[in-house]
Amino acid sequence: xxxxxxxxxxxxxxxxxxxxxxxxxxxxxxxxxxxxxxxxxxxxxxxxxxxxxxxxxxxxxxxxxxxxxxxxxxxxxxxxxxxxxxxxxxxxxxxxxxxxxxxxxxxxxxxxxxxxxxxxxxxxxxxxxxxxxxxxxxxxxxxxxxxxxxxxxxxxxxxxxxxxxxxxxxxxxxxxxxxxxxxxxxxxxxxxxxxxxxxxxxxxxxxxxxxxxxxxxxxxxxxxxxxxxxxxxxxxxxxxxxxxxxxxxxxxxxxxxxxxxxxxxxxxxxxxxxxxxxxxxxxxxxxxxxxxxxxxxxxxxxxxxxxxx
Length: 309
Hints:
Helix content: 25-40%
Oligomer: single chain
Shape: globular
Radius of gyration: 21 Å
Number of domains: 2
């Protein structure tokens, strides 16, 4: 726990009288492009085969169990499958008659040109967040606002999120427009020999919301005036798959033996995703590996069960 003075010592030059804060010196940070590449290379060194630009269309079964992954380039015979499709997972499972309760939200982010900043520490305030980027600029986002572009799924399962809406509804910037009709055009059912939605849209790449990014930068400049010199280098957005309780689903499916799900990380996937060890937040992905290999889970799997939702 930090006092107002301790905040100023760690992140000097701020304005306003912070009541207090929390600092975790042991927290780490990573550049996603570097981290994911390093993880892929490590997996390949251990025998994994990475196949890119190849959409999985569906799963085939034999005697009621998964026996094959059907891709756009051919079949892969297997006994076990781990679905870690993020925001695509609900549509993929829906094609198999499994209803996954996740909804998409969109987070907008900006990066500044290289500049002097108040600290190397990643800092989150009530309505902004910033961290130093490897090139010397800063990554900034509006911490208390996400875009909720209404889709058919919001209308179908939105009622499951009522408790979250009561406490966090103010975070959402809801809109109805072209995203609804674009999503509606994508198939909800398809066959193994037909083109899947994942081939029509290779990457979920929503447009950034300049209004939210400007809010974030304005709020940050009020708190740390040094960011008045910030110049935006680029901006982007990403889709987050949210579960009704904001915890991931890491579990087998009862209706399709051989299939394990690890999805719905609710914006925490970069932190909890890497299987870097067997302690703390890393245990989430270790749990997925344990389930697939029928090993004894190292953590209690109950909070991640599909049936809780």
